[in-house]
Amino acid sequence: MRKLGILVFLVLSFGFAQKVHLMWSGAITGPTSDAGKYYAQGVEDYCKYANEEGLTGGLTIVCETRDDQYNNANTQRNFEEALERGDPAFLGYSTGGTLQLKPLIQEVGMTYIPASYHIGNIDPPNNDYLFLPIVSYSEQVIALLEYIAKEKPGAKVALAVHPSPFGRAPVPDAKEAAKELGIEIVEVQEMAKGLDYTATLKRFANKGVEYIVYQNVAGPVATMIKDAKRLGLNIKHAAAHYAGGPDLLRLAGDAAEGVIWVTSYYMPYEDAPGAAFVKKLGERYKRPADTIESVHYPSGMLAAAIAIEAIKRAHTAGKPVTGDAGREAVYAEMLKLSFDPGLAVGPVTYSKEDHVGVDHMRVLEAKGGKFVPITEPFQSKLFRKVHYGK
Amino acid sequence: MSYFLQLLVSGLVVGSIYALAALGFVLIYKASRVINFAHGQFIAVGAFTVYALVVYLKLNVWLSFGIALFFTALIAFLVEKLFLKPLVGQPIISVIMVTIGLASLLDGLIHLTPFGGGNFSLPRFLPEGGVSFLGVSVSYPQLLAVLLTALFLAGFGWFFQRSTLGAAMRAVADDQMAAMSLGVSVEHVFALAWAAAGITAAAAGFIVGTVSGINLESLVAIGLKVFPAVILGGLDSIPGAVVGGIIIGVLENLATGYLDPLVPGGGTAEVFPFVILLLVLWFKPHGLFGTEEIERV
Asked: Which residues of B touch A251 (CB under 8 A)?
């Protein structure tokens, strides 16, 4: 009888709990869906978990993942739908979509958390409502350059970037940082998906390139690394967040041995509470091994966790969480948000001046088919110097 | 010199993969005058079939490859019977729209499987490393690509020149009415052309998967990347598909090697083949080996 009573209470409280919608729009199909698919699953699972475990302050968060096929027009349509419905925040995805929506985001005052870590998202103008979950691409690439400069002073480096705003994002800051570090950026090569990178690699080798730093996605990087091994080139490879990870190991196999990679997330096999939590959630919601292993899965979780925490705090403070007032209240909470969901190597902290959530990252190296951390979590002071001049 | 030679050989390898993928286009166009915009999706079907059989059912890679050839051919055959056959005699734009729709449909169906998003890699079945000569290096997967392409081209060459069915297909390609009057089943030939294109698509998918991993977007992109190859070679010419594919592959590599340093950011490989394509079409509007059709009004 008591159990029945509890059940009735839970059903009723769920039924009567205020519902707040939270939309994610990203590429479940189309270009970059190899990341978007897992990111969406991370959003969905964290949302379910937060509702089930009462992490929502009594609200029912209805998370909706929409496939925009990496198409900016679709992203905009989804954003406008969320806006009309009165959603208090929005989870975005691509660099192009986010940059295009910046003026609209500013105009309507909606908190927007993209999967793109382009520094331009949070640089003026129209940057008030944009929040990066982790360190920017620029900071990631500069961290890699700092690591290279320590390992090989005066090294010759080539940047191999995706042919898009996503790929080009860190190039200006990287060039400035290289000057400060006394290393030489020999060439910046935009590399699309291809079957063979012999020509590019031979050219790099002829110019004495010792390191290639990738701001790209895992597919082309894997092919390039395999080609470099086949050609017997003595070049080391360093990858920013989206260019590395378990996907790279799966695609490049043994050739990935020794690749260094920078990210703010834990690996699922690490002995860390964050890694165990990701694994637990994946198993709880019956996700396959490839989802649990993917670095994009906790990335989606983190974005959802940030938005849900801000919504919860606004609600707990007795403020509205839908419509115009809801957007304003959630934004106000974002500006003072400081909590540690344990999903990344540092806490999430935002302020009016700081729109980067997790300010720390680690460098990892591929050893024995796994990425293992070779540094403690750190921030790049050089990034602040070259980008903000402070 | 070895730099140029390496670019040339790598270009030949990539070009031979384009040639194999282009062959499927040409087979369908030659038989039925249909441009199949869903060819990239057939390439993906072939690649994912091999992957599923090897990884999930633990079958031998060559057996899986054989099954994938048959399976993709069957899918292509059924697609022709279901969607293309009712359109015989309809305006070409209707047929093209159907193949575009077919591409979306197949894309959607693949996304319902575990293969829609994500990167996959076939378990290694070839030795590591490769062959080196005159300062040029070719990996075993790349060698396999060239060998399989040569094998398929020789096989199709024999089929079209020596077999009765091949002769019937050539007859339909030359003149459908005349072929029908000689008792050739044009409908049957169309379906067989699609099945043959399915075989080449599966082979291309397997090779791309072996060389650079399996990802739906990349496989579909290969299907579209061979457009300049078939246009350059001539849409209805099998030797043209081969030559066109190889020319595009070599041009891409030479552009990357010699032009990219002159252009900030590089990326000339994406453009340069099209510049050459435009120049060739200026002088030879039907492509290098395409049939020049003269219509008398």
From this structure: 119, 121, 213
pLDDT more than 70, % of chain A: 96
> Across-strand partners of A370?
A367
Chain B positions in Cβ-Cβ contact with residue A35 (cut-off 8 Å)? 117
Closest Cα in chain A to B208: A195
Q: What is the Cα Rg of chain A in Å?
A: 21
CA torsion through residues A357, A360, A363, A366, sign = negative
List where CATH 3.40.50.2300 sits in chain A.
2-135+271-358, 137-263+362-388
| Complex ipTM value | 0.86
Kindly report the CATH number that applies to the domain delimited by A137-263+362-388: 3.40.50.2300
pLDDT in tens, B21-78: 999 988 898 888 888 999 999 999 999 999 999 999 999 999 999 999 999 999 999 9
Q: Can you say whether residue B213 is alpha, beta or left, with left for phi > 0 and alpha for psi between -120 and 50 degrees?
A: left
Please give the average per-residue pLDDT across A176-181, as a whole number.
Answer: 97
> Is A192 within 8 Å of B114 when comparing Cβ atoms?
no
The answer to whether the Cβ–Cβ distance between A34 and B218 falls below 8 Å is no
Cβ-defined contact of B118 to A219 (cutoff 8 Å): no
Instruction: Determine the pLDDT at residue A6.
Output: 55
SS3 (DSSP) at A240: coil
Burial code (b: 16+ CB inside 10 Å, e: under 16) for A215-231 equals bbbbbbbbbbbbbbbbb
- How far is B72 from B173, CA to CA, in rounded Å? 23
Predicted confidence at residue B186, as pLDDT, reads: 87
Is the pLDDT assigned to residue B179 strictly greater than 80? yes
**pLDDT of amino acid A5:** 60
Give A290's contacts in chain B (Cβ within 8 Å).
114, 118
**Nearest chain B Cα distance for residue A216, angstroms:** 14
Contact by Cβ (8 Å): B85, B190 = yes
**Nearest residue in chain B measured CA to CA from A163:** B267
Residues of A in contact with B120 (CB under 8 A): 250
pLDDT tens figures, A302-322 = 999 999 999 999 999 999 999
pLDDT digit string, tens, across residues B95-146: 889 999 999 999 989 988 888 878 888 998 888 778 888 888 898 989 999 9
Task: Provide the residue type at B226 as one letter.
Answer: V
| CB-based contact B71:B205 (threshold 8 Å) | no
Of residues B170 and A355, more confidence is placed in A355
Contact residues, chain B, for A30 at CB < 8 Å: 217
A28 interaction partners in chain B (CB closer than 8 Å): 111, 116-117
Q: Mind listing the pLDDT tens digit for each residue in A50-102?
A: 999 999 999 999 999 999 999 999 999 999 999 999 999 999 999 999 999 99
Could A29 and B266 be called an inter-chain contact, meaning their C-beta atoms sit closer than 8 Å? no
Q: Is the pLDDT of residue B296 over 80?
A: no
The phi and psi torsions of A117 (rounded to 5 degrees) equal -100, 30
Q: Do B212 and A222 touch (CB under 8 A)?
A: yes
Top-tier CATH class for A2-135+271-358: alpha beta
Q: Determine, for residues B114 and A288 on separate chains, whether the beta-carbon distance falls below 8 Å.
A: yes
Query: Taking CB atoms and an 8 Å cut-off, how many pairs form between chains A and B?
Result: 125
Interface test with B, best of A41, A159, A168, A196 (most B CBs within 10 A): A196
The domain at B2-283 falls in which architecture? Answer: Orthogonal Bundle (1.10)
Entry pTM? 0.89
The answer to whether the CB atoms of B256 and A199 lie below 8 A apart is yes
Indicate if the alpha-carbon torsion angle A209, A210, A213, A217 is positive or negative.
Answer: positive
Q: Nearest C-alpha of chain A: how many angstroms from B126?
A: 13
